[in-house]
Structures
1.
Amino acid sequence: MRVAILAFLAAVAAASSSAAAGPDRYTVLLSGNRAGEETVLRLPSGELAIHFEFNDRGRGPKIDERIALDGRGWPASTDVAGNDYFKGAVAERFRRQGGKARWQSDVEKGEAAADAGFYLAFNGAPAEVGLLASALLRAPGLAAPLLPEGRASIEPAGERTVRKDAESRAVSQYLLTGIDFAPLRVWLDRDGSFFASVSPWLTVVREGWEGCVADLSAVQEESAARRLKELASKLAHRHSAIAFTHAALFDSPAASMISGTTVVVSGGRIAAVGRDGSVEIPAGAQVIDAAGKTLMPGLWDMHVHLSSANDGLLDVANGITTVRDMGNDPDALLSWKKQFDEGAAVGPHVELAGLVDGRGPYTAPIKVKVDDEREAKAAVDDYFRRGYAQIKIYSSIKPELMPVIARLAHAHGMRVSGHVPAFMTAEQFVREGSDEIQHINFLFLNFLFDTVKDTRTPARFTAVAEHGVEIDPSQERVKAFLALLAEHRTVVDPTLVAFETMFVGRKGVVSPAYAAIADRMPAQVRRGFLSGSLPIPAGKEALYRESYRSMLRMVKALFDRGIPIVAGTDDLAGFSLARELELYVEAGIPAPDVLRIATLGGARVMKRDQERGSIEPGKIADLALVDGDPTRRISDVRNVEIVLKDGVLFRPSEIDAAIGVKPAS
């Protein structure tokens, strides 16, 4: 390994001795679709001039960055200007001089000793990952501290020969740890320059080599699967039988607590439930004294977009034993689901919703495009064949195709949900066959149709932020709409936690959505919580907050009228669900009902309540043991001590240690 690194460094030295004739060019792909570019130019001064941008449905960053490197390959100076993902202005500056390292941006300001670490720009381009990898390969022990905080290390993960027409080249994969919950994977050329960063969501690859992305992705997935299988073997505790005694059991059908309960699990199923002393405990069972704790069904997060199989660790560590993926690359998603189902990776059950969208400037970055009835039938049939239970319609679907898709899906017994397509109201969406609406903002947009008809753009957020306060459940027009939802038994997936960051978050301040967990996260993950979200016009902070409060009032009105709600996040895997439930309680929904929504409620919507969602003999043993009583204090759902998924026991403290999460204080 050391010989390979020395050869790599020799190539770096040779490459850096002369300036390149022109910029290195990279293509930015979102879910496999071209969405932007990155260029890296070495200036005569030796500085690097980097440009990076991409378009994601009208959102996306556009930045220019200039970096000067010192002899170690560490930034001596960095300047970043442009806009962030939500089009907020970006201005960032770093200097290492006079014995000090100083940095300032719209979210951070600080200083440290000049040699305190490698500075990663808050809004830096992906090329910085390549610079960090190169610097770590030169560093003693292949590790170095980071600024503002943290520590990163690197290890080689093998070479791959990639081909473009008649040309071939060898590229090397490296694993960077200390950046995220899982190792960050980066590919470098033989000369040490950045070649690619590949993920199912966002890929940056050297221009002209886009055809090798599938191969690099397969190599990464194979490597990641081996790592996750090793972790699963260490983290999964298998017992012939498990008995919980002295538990306060959450009875999800009744939304109430039953004290002094014994629950026996065997063969992946719940074998017996009864009062302490009335249930026979099998010989050799692992007995867990649950006195002072709540035993509840595993939680359901009904709105996720898995980014990798690693998300499964975050979910299980937070008591989530079932998720519903609301749109993903089918091949990757089914592979991750298979790993979870077989126990080759730690993860929840996965319910599948297949995403479809129309073509156009704001189309979702997915492969499945539907612009006519023929394409609609092909898409629905294919999702059904793959085992999907639901079709999710996205914003660029033509309104006239919506009832066609609904008819095709319903013929297969599949559910239909989604964003309300542009140029269509939520009322029309319901009347023409939707079983469910994703995101609470679309309920508000039903009353803003004269203001914003094209909801493909970020206007679907900003219009609600500006006018949401004007819409109240007490209004007759709102009452009539809620009556329609109740009549059709339309399910609503509010994702309040995502809007809390979007409407209430402020740059430089940890969003309230993450305040309870921020200090436990890996340093660079925690840093991301400072980003804020929507650019808020000066003087409108209070207006945006009040519009968000209107969202909470709307969710309470849904509950009061018996309109089904499901608890979904569309946010940070695992850790966000507790905040979603806290927000339902803040809206005025009683905590026991919130807990039922997040357990049996999800199971009923997905027609899985005969096997999951409650603690009853014969059901799958998906359980969570929580320190405290979440029916009195919903935040106690954060205190998960033991999780059973299919009867296999996991300890969140062990999972947290494996992914770099600090223990709760």
2.
Amino acid sequence: MSNISKKRFLRLVSIAGIYSFISVVGFYCAYFIRFDGLIPANFETQFWTFIGWFAFVQVCVLIAFGQTNVVISYFSLVDVRSILLANSTSCLLLFSSAAWFGVRIPRGVVILDFLLLTAGIGVARSVMRYWAERRRSEFASGSRSTGEPRPVAIVGAGDAGARVVRELLAKPALRLKPVAFFDDDPMKWGQRLHGVAIIGKPELIREVPWRDQLRKIIVAAPSATPARVGEIARIAADLGITSDTLPALDQLVDGTVKVSQLRPVRIDDLLRRPVIPLDQGAIQSGIRGQVVVVTGAGGSIGSELCRQILRAGPRQLLLLERSEVQLFQIEQELLEMGGGSTVVPLIADVADAGRIREIFQRYRPDAIYHAAAHKHVPMMEAQPSEAIRNNSLGTANLARLAHEFRVGRFVLISTDKAINPTNVMGASKRLAEIFLQAFQAAHPNPTRFMAVRFGNVLGSSGSVVPTFQKQIAAGGPITVTHPEVTRYFMTIPEAVGLVLQAGALGKGGEIFVLDMGEPVKIVDLARQMIELSGYRAGEDIEIRFVGLRPGEKMFEELSHHKEQLTETGHPKIFRFVWTPVPLPSVEEYFERLRPRLGAVEPGELKKAIQEMVPEYKPYLS
């Protein structure tokens, strides 16, 4: 017998033993009370004759009703109902059989035995629950800081609110003390629920004198509309108080509220295809023991690159980032992952040739994953010189130094917006692709230059998912540019896996693209996020169309018409190649473009890009 089976058996025997003891004591007390403590000799004989049979039958019936196979730390009305049914059944069975055999048991004993047995089991179960909760609370308190309980207010004086209070009172280790209820129902105002006063409507939170002492507001009102929940959340935010929400358990059961409301919407829920597996062996073999550089290490893509590269076992992982705050955050995360001396944080701008040269001279990298970029489309439309300076000239600067220091491979993270671009961000990335292919053709060794085109990355900074999540949390509306806009989507880990896989597959001069399935309408994505959050699109959360922003396309493309598609060793990854532009022409163009940055109007600069990217259709205000 396994240890688990032994424990279950011992637990069943223990509970059955407790019930047997209660049955014996209850049966004796029934006689004792019925005869005022003076049990006649014939009835005392009757008691001793039947006590073993009574205890056996009553415990067997309790077992049949599932009262030994229970979680002893919980005791609710459902258990009370089961105990009443079990005891009624056993008492009726026992006294009917006694009457059948001509044994006369006093009616008072029958009634008292039922009442005492039920009360005894109820008391025993309550004590079990109290003891279990106390032990759990003491165990939890061992890993929590001590101190005074923090006051919390609960919005919603209904079943869900009552459950919250019971949980908080039963678990003092949480150090959360319910001090007040707030509810929109005036009929509840002035009353008390589990000893906690119902003050009034939620807006009164602003007016109560002890509002500065509150540490949390728990919204336990599942029937409230998202707009109302958003109003309450804003009240909490105005007061500098955190707020949480939860659905009622009965709504989870009947489907009114979905389980997904108990957690944020997961990115994988939104990807309408299986996540594509990659060749982890090939990826790790290309990284293990090497010095690897990640530019833009603090961004959404860069930080995930760092995580996956660290797991592959590099000799050193250089984190290049010009934002001190973002660099510190990813460094601390990687140290917690066990990065130790492997992780080297470096503040640097890829456009600063002197600083990059200094880093390459010191560390001699074997691979570069270039994620540093300006990527927000509307922002770059107004500042095209910065998009070109960072995305195009910065990439060219990094590529020249990679060749000079004989870096083994250079992987650029590009975008599907680089195909027939209509915005500066996409056009600046296309310029970077053109430069890398020209440079690879002119200098085939020792560095292998390649690029990876992403679709929209779910959950990255500036993507629609975080925006939609905030809008849903605020009660709506969700803003969508156009009902027919479509995009290709991928997850951050999937996108990063593609970058690392490209580094293993690339021979130099290629552009890699992941098979991202069919494009998804943004409005459909919005509806899916609303539904995954437990609401109804158009009823609970409004979808509002606001029109295309400057530089935005209705749909994205995967390849330029001059690019040739070839297969790779991976069935879901494709390689695009095309005849490169001569490097002297690209270098001469970049030299002419550089002095115009910041010196000409944005419209003139956009027109200048068309010299090298004729398919670019700029937005000219």
3.
Amino acid sequence: MISIITRHAKFRAELTSKLSSVGAAHREIDPDSELVISAIYDPKVSAVIVDAQTPKLAQAAWLDLLTSLSCRLPVFVLGHPPARSKDQDSRAGSLLGWLGAGDVSSTMAMLQAAGVLGGSSQSLNQTSIPIFNAQVPLHMIQGNGALSMLVINASGLRKISVDYGFEVYRKVQECFQHVLVEMWGNPGSFRRNDILMQKSPNSNTYYVFLEQSRITNALPAPGVLEKVADRLTLKLQQQLWAEIFKPRNEKRMPDCIQTLPEFSLGHATALNNPCLDTLDVIDQLFEMAAEVCKVQRRRVQDREREILQTIIHSRDILYPNYQAIFNLQKISKVKVEEAQTSKSISPLVDALYGFESLIRVRSQHLEEKVASDHLVYLDIKLLRPDILFAMAAHSHVALELDQLCMAVGIAGGVELPGPLMVNILPRNLMHLDRLNHLLNARSDLVFEISESEGFSNPRQMEKIRDYVKKINCSIAADDFGKGHASIERVIKMRPALIKLDRSLVEKIHLEPAKKMFVDGVVKAAKTINATVLAEGIETWDEALTVQAMGVELIQGFLLHRPESLERILEQIRAGKDENLGSVA
């Protein structure tokens, strides 16, 4: 029986209607009635919903009475907790479930979490995560004699607010919560009767209190909780990756989020001890789960590093594709349409400048190497180069992965005509003389300095430029307009080539501000004798606009999608044969 003692008529009417719809027994009591005190102590009462004040008692006395009552049954209070002085016991007051102004759906979620709805809870359509209230674990551990829990620590989401702003952070947090709710009760996740709660309204920590009956009312067997946490980690990762990869019109994750937010899972079990304060036991339960969270995060990082080391050492898991780069001033709309129709660069051979190496992953090869590992915390099928490098950055193998990608791209592109562009991290570029064995004696390489790292040593940059020039290669500022690729950095670098990021050229024909900015870059590039390349061009209007502004080189899906060496060489030969035939 749920006792409802409130003056809030609208809330009371909506709540009683909702309780009736799920078959939950309840009783309304007039706050002015003399029966208020006896009613809340009725042995049949399973939970109490009351106003923060009553005419019968001073508020302090009323709250003390409710706090005492909450030690044996759930008590939810309409209102906000009063401020407490330093010498008052704030923990005791925290046992009460504060409902604020009184939202019926959140109240129902709290009642369900507290276990007072019984079988009727199955009728609820859970669409949100209730805020944690200490009464839930308190009554579960007292009723069952033990309590097992999982804790999901997603505090890594906070970094998103620093990198992308608060609005993006809130959208990612909402997406994370939606995924948790959708997983609730699904195979490979946690059960519908397990209780999911958020630590506080703005927290990125979530608790899952496990129903005791999941294994015939016994404690989970040794190692079971660890397996549950591992399985849930993988499931959650897969769901979040799926959000990132969804089409733009379907995804809930902001477009700028391209890598997985960090999170970890912990687990713990506590036994009720009548000789100890139950709240102390629950505090210890949370502390144990939090410690396991740290351990599990390290295990995930160790496993990711081992996977990356396997990729790097095997050398047959990564392979190159190549994307053509063209002299923009030699391109016409007619030739572009011919190339699109034939799905070949043959009509554009006369405008060909060179190629960029782009790394791909042989997922099947990698799956075969880790097939016997049941603790892989990621879906191999979802691996992309940008994801690999994000993993490598926090696994401290980014330099080794970068060296492998450079070696694979150069070795596979020996037969390609024109300059070959390869990405390189600044820290590897600083030691390029030690990586000479990877260059395959090729003399027309263009080292694209990645935007993922800063480069702030001008003297070192001078030495690098001298060495690169000595081996007849050159340097490009990659993705200008994104990340660390600022004007100041380009001036210090003095590259032979500046690559405009896709964000600067997308719909440039419709945005005057972009035109002015790119026009300034083109003019500045001439003063340092640098060539400008527009990458990511997807429409003829974009190409025509940058062509008119004096951009010399172009790269993008409008002209060519990355392909294998063999396919590209076939197209080049066909293009040359066609030209010879036309001359003849």
4.
Amino acid sequence: MRRLGALMLCMAALLGGCGDGVDARRIERAAPGEWLSNGRTYGEQRYSPLAQITPANVGRLGLAWEAALESYDFGIEATPLVADGRLYVTSTWSRVFAFDAETGKRLWAFDPEVPREWLRQGCCKAVNRGVALWKDKVYVGAFDGRLIALDARTGRQVWSADTTGRKPQYTITGAPRVVKGKVIIGNGGGDFGTRGYISAYDADTGKLAWRFYIVPKDPRTPQEHPELDAAVKTWDPNRDWSVGGGGNAWDSMSYDPDLDLLYVGTGNGGPYDPRRRNPGGGDSLYLSSILALRPDTGRLAWHYQTTPGDQWDFTATANMVLAEVEIGGRPRKVLMQAPKNGFFYVLDRATGELLSAEKYVRTTWAARVDLKTGRPVRAAAADYTKGRALLFPSPYGGHNWQPMAFSPKTGLVYIPAQDLGWVWDPTSPTWFYRGADGSTLAPAEAAQGPRGRLIAWNPRTGRPAWTIDLPEPMNGGVLATAGGLVVQGTADGDIHLREATTGRLLRRIQVGTGVVAAPISYRIRGVQYLAVAAGWNGVRPAPDTPGAPAPFANDGRLIVLKLDGGKVPVAARRPPPGPLMTGAGPQPPDLVARGRGLYLANCARCHGFAGERGPFPDLRRMRPETLEAFDGIVLGGAYRAGGMASFADLLKPEDTRAIKAYLVDRAARDAGAAGLATRP
């Protein structure tokens, strides 16, 4: 009976080769009922051909099932995959869950047991964007750099490969892809100045097949592959080669089986400041680039650099959509990307020829992209090393990692965008460059404030078909369907269902938990489902605001909807925060000033620039006993099991004394204590 049930599921989903597991044929043909790869197909369009749910019946949508993902306020970024009646999704700390896709019954869970102190090695919490499927295995990249193969039916580990050598400041948060029997995985760490690369492993054995380094090493030693001989000419030969340079491919990949080209988006320069990274100037290949690689060998077919000499954290790691679009009066096989830098690129995916590059959000660092040279025409103020500058977009990007979607039915690309500027300061000591006064809200934005947008972009005309403003900047990825819908979760805890041609809001489903992950759609026994992983992770531009925008708990959960389902539960509200520290008395101004710089340089990326951010403790609200134990925590590693590693390699007792003075002073000022009116 179990075998008969499995066969019926295969037939219902219109699958081929069900008994053989997921292979290239199944991913390429993309049966409508399944979601077998991160963007559903190799082309990463995030378009579902299912049409049971339509604008006419979205009012009937309700809960099919939901499941806890145990993320503990860190947020969920994963795209679920569905194959053979099973749904696979990841949570924080690279944990993997398998559910019955029809009933929501948990089938198994896997925890790679990432050491919690590894949290310090990453920029943006121990999140994960999903798994890959191939034959009878599930593949996940672990936060500490391992690539792990699991048995798809049991969740048992089959093999594990250390992709980063346990080197500090390397992490994996992106979803692997499997192409021609090779598991492709990149890494993060460019913000810390690591040297980025992308690797391919044999899907059966875990043996390394090839590795492509994105930036060169010291030219006094031979480069690992010939493409780096060309790249090294774009770097200062006298630079400090102990600084890796960045370029890490931490997210996006696509694949064209006909051209046999694997497309990889590469990351930002690290450190951002070119005076430290590449003082002699130059394009710094292959930072912020789209690479077309041969998946058998890892050799480069072509590249296109979106941001030469990147110094603004303008990664090209946003998802890349492959489609056939009419450009210049004739159909072209194109690659489309809306990277952080504010320009929407359309490239010929066979040759890398630039076909179009237009601003999709407010963009001031460059006036335009020259179609003849393919290079941006920089604005005079773009080089902040010569003076403080307000630039758009910010390092958070006009579009960040949250996936956009393309509908072949409407011909539109749906971009989860944001309008947000940044004050860059050449003297700032912070991890992210900010104004010397610590401001994150630029004066030019004060009237309207930072905001999110959902943009329906027409790649044929290089213009938006429609634009919707959203109150919070960083919202969820997007799904487009053949039923004429655009589905997106929002930072303030809703799921929006819009009409695809006009953007008209058809239905708002409140879930409470903020959403940044992208929805998917699948079908079981003739029933279409919409699934989205809720749990907000991101950044907010305004100081003194908690990490998750909505006043609801941010515990991750998978929410699955269907027509005529039940009531969708709303998350519980957050408990009120504890009191601010106010009783320690005035602190020496010089010590407070020094402590502020140390705090911004060492603590702010987790605990927030104003002291309050998401799952990490608000240090302005420490209890007296915690303040007393501060050195034991920060220097002694007393809380390492919870993710707070020791900083004894960077800080000394005199430094922690200054940081404490700053936090006590900041808490008193924020609470309206004496001296507030006279202090700057």
